[in-house]
# Entry
Amino acid sequence: MEKPGLPKGTRDFGPQVMARRNYIFEVIRNVFQRYGFQPLETPAMENLSTLTGKYGDEGDQLLFRILNSGDFLKDVPENQKSDSKTLTQHIADKGLRYDLTVPFARYVVMNRHDITLPFKRYQMQPVWRADRPQKGRYREFYQCDADVVGTDSLLCEAEIILMIKEVMLGLNVPDYTIKVNHREILNGIAEALGASGKETSLFVAIDKLDKIGEEGVQHELQAKGFTRKQCDDLFKLLRTSGNSKAKLQSLADVFKRSPHGQKGLADLSRVFELLTRYNQDDTHVEFDLALARGLSYYTGCIFEVKINGVAIGSVSGGGRYDNLTQAFGSKEKLSGVGISFGIDRIYDALEELKLFPASAQAGATVLVCHFDEACLTYGISILAQLRSQDIAAEIFPETAKLKKQLDYANKKQIPFAVVIGPEEITTGKLAVKNMNTGEQEHLPLEQLIKKIKP
# Structure
């Protein structure tokens, strides 16, 4: 018999892992709700027509297609059964969602008359990509998205930065970087280099700077027809130093003749100005000219978040998009901006940095132990009162030696054990053992509840 296994790039999550994941979900959810975002869920599968053409050629290749069941060729005319495109459409016309942004845009178009603009939604669901599994990259993983659609206001971009900061604070992450750039600044760089018409090749190469370095980027660009001077001018621009404000000022001269570049600089300057209105500064925020993610759909500000000190890549990213709803035939141009947190990468980073709090654990806070049937009966009444006070508690379900019951508490990392014996029934004072320190004391139930209630 074949041993059970999992598809590559997928994982089981046991109780301890789920408790930690739920801790991350709760921190992010609380931040989203505090900023006025409402929850939304969309189906795991979408029509392929919804998904294809929205992520570029590479994204289309990573879509998981769902095979149709039954005799799906019975309605296909004989003369079309040799046509590969027709067969593909009939074999698989649905796919697993690749991200949460495109399904959100589809939802907005379908429900345009039922939603109030600006529409703020958050969504926390799994997505699937037929990618090559590796550390920090999975075929099935969760995203936590927050998007605002129906407004051009840069207040939304400023609040995205604030939300990222609050999530990192809530997760006790001390060292992280929020990288920001603007699509129009990238367009301005292309104009400054005289590379109009070659923007895609330029941006794709720039986005690889962290991975392949200047030499690798130069080699790739020259293979695409860029001159040595263009490459030298590019690296000179990308090496612009100083804080975000200094970089913006330095680029003002470079973009004097570039309306695209000036638009990007003006937008980013406004975002940083708005941060000061919230009594915030650009701590943890870096204006990075080499940030070029989401080339196929981002049209304005671009964000990427990295937790420093870990080998894992970005844990969050997002940006402004102007054309997504129009891809579904909407004549109304609805601008949107959003951010997405990758739960799995955040988990791996927190685990590597040992940042999970002791409170992020699964199971009970108290185990009620007992010596015999009479003590079990009395313990059940104690158990009921603990639970009525919103204290997670369980009772050992059978009569057993005390050592076995305490070993059970240790293995499940239950921090407190209440031991019920004849003396506890007589006096009403419960023997309470702290399983972490070994300290033991006798307390009335009321004091016990005060001691351990979260």
Remarks:
- The domain at 366-452 is CATH 3.40.50.800 (Rossmann fold).
- The longest strand covers residues 119-128.
- Residues 84 and 115 are 40 Å apart (CA to CA).
- The chain has 17 helices and 16 strands.
